[in-house]
Amino acid sequence: MEKKKKLHNYKWNLFLLLLTLYKFPTLEAFDYADALTKSLLYFESQRSGRLPYNQRVTWRDHSGLTDGLEQGVDLIGGYYDAGDHVKFGLPMAFTVTMLSWGVIEFRREIASAGELKHAMEAIKWGTDYFIKAHTSPNVLWAEVGDGDTDHYCWQRPEDMTTSRQAYKIDPDNPGSDLAGETAAAMAAASIVFKSTNPHYSHLLLQHAQQLFEFGDKYRGKYDGSVGVVKRYYASVSGYKDELLWAALWLYKATDSPEYLKYVINEAQSFGGTGWAITEFSWDVKYAGLQLLASKLLMEEKHQNHAQVLEQYRSKAEYYICSCLNKNNGTDNVERTPAGLLYVRQWNNMQYVSTAAFLLTVYSEFLKSANQKLTCNGETISQEEILGFAKSQADYILGSNPQNMSYLVGFGSSYPKRVHHRGASIMSFRENKGFIGCTQGYDYWYGRQEPNPNVLVGALVGGPDCEDDFSDQRHNYMQTEACTYNTAPLVGVFAKLSQLEQQKLGENLNWRLVASY
Questions:
Q1: Which residue among 163, 231, 313, 388 is least enclosed by CB atoms within 10 Å?
Q2: Catalytic option among 84, 283, 364, 467
């Protein structure tokens, strides 16, 4: 009888606990697994080319099916970078590098959330295009379309009438930054596919090695060779960061000493151990490079290079400390009154998402090494670093003065008038009637109604330095989203989701034990 009573009490307490968790979820926790799912959906909205049978974003259709035709090369596929229809090689490659790095660091967590297949599909959509664009060892197609003619029109990608001229880099028109970033993307992706698709992984590695050799041998900035890109994705940082970045990813992918030797020997002359940077982006790779190099210190075989690797680590920690507001004086990243990292007015969220990623990765590194960070004499735990990364992710998801998620489609309040041609016009699948170049401006661009298609998973440019945000389609500095905004969040959301599940499990076990 006593046993039956205990069992009845146990079941009743379990029922009450589950009911409480269901009805009153913790206010602090967001559904990071849902955020992860939605972030990967966004890349399907940005696809160019012939869409596959398993396309989940159903308001999109085939587009850009003649890309490269004028130049006699197949350049169908890849991603549109933002709210327009140009395929810019440099930001696309950085997007794929960040997606791949996220899977490399957090593969188990992404798989646990049931999203590994979609993450790998997002990566492969980009790398399949890079394989096409790399038509010979020393030729890489850099761009399809141009921003000037593209921005003159407001129409769906399925209706495109703008120029689809393609531009390339080659020995006479070098682009070491673009070649380097594309090599990094393909090398990182080769690691992702190594265990599940070894043939494809090997193919990516071959292309990556050729591209690195090409970029290193014929040095120059790609925006000097492809003039039409200067107003949109000019390479301000130059190409030395990308060459170091590519070499390091190739070392990670091949374990070949020649690439490590390059990273060590060129560390000073290429700025790897010289530049102390407070941003990480599609243009400036130093912080990511420095952090990735720091992780080599965990392995015994790298002790011969410990002196240089420690210099890389010093600069990586300068970046981390600047995000945590722990450097001296003005050597920190600014913040909004509500605590969001603030680098610059236009599309600031790109810097927030990359910072959240690097902070998350570095906190994991410190945890594995059982070490702590020192900023200006102050000791910082890995929990504090991860906690700040979480605060940035939470701000993005709605813990902000606007009570708005800047990840489109997440929660009940999010930007409804995203600056995006395809999302702002009735879906081609609903109405196949042709919409001309300027018709979109006439009938859709200025509408006050929400976009007819929700750009799920897009991370928009975000609020200004005072946490203010205007949800207007013409306000492209704040309402336009880019692939490289969302890409770093995949790894961050996966890690935070795993931590929430772990915490939920621990709370459940504790309460069950207490109730029993």
A1: 231
A2: 84
